[in-house]
Amino acid sequence: MDQGKKKPRTYDSARIRTAVAAQLASVRAAVGQLTPEQLALPTHLGDWTVRDLAAHIAWIVRSIPEAAARPAPAKAELTVRDWPFATSRLAATVAELAKETAAGEELGPLYEESAARFEELLAVIPDDRVLQLRVGAMAFGDFMVTRTVELVVHTDDLNRAAGLDIPFDRQALAACTRLLADALAVKAPGGSVEVRIPPFAVVQCVAGPRHTRGTPPNVVETDPLTWIRLATGRTDWAAAIEEAQVSASGERADLSGLLPVMS
Question: What kind of fold does domain 174-258 have according to CATH?
Fold first, then answer.
């Protein structure tokens, strides 16, 4: 059965909370060591510098307790599977707001305050507490899964722009990979193509003849980081194929028309 029709994937709340906190700690430590020259470097995110990107990551974390301080909506409007498709209409607004909010703030105090408030919130907030977000109302537990995507993707952005080697928390990387793989299956429901992202995810997608036994006729396989870059528009499908970062076999295995799944 394809992922689009399966029971939605569940995530271990305690592991997700720990993973988000761990990824944030790794980013915070690395940002604290950046030189003025590194902070001024360009990124592949429009006109953002490394400093803008680092400030944006801190803003992502700071916005969570800010959302929790607002009155709770009566019910959630979005789930984890809805989130990738709901973000696109607000991406530019959120990016600009984050840049304006963090402008002029020192990164050290910004990260210290954001991390402290976030840790305090984690100790008291239940998973079913609904947050009023710009993208829509979401339960805290679901929203935390989406934070793995934001933190992992932007950790990779920082690494590439500033020549860093910030490690990826395994649980954060796994959740990010799975969420984006499931998003592909929701975007292109079906069972004719099997997408393998070892060791974290396998999904079936794309309408057409359904595979039931043996080796699937249409298979795409790649590593988690390449998949995350493809799914978020950081890497082009053709370039990934040419550089042997992706293997694709079968007449339906070209996913270029379905990527990115979010941007």
Answer: Nonspecific Lipid-transfer Protein; Chain A (3.30.1050)
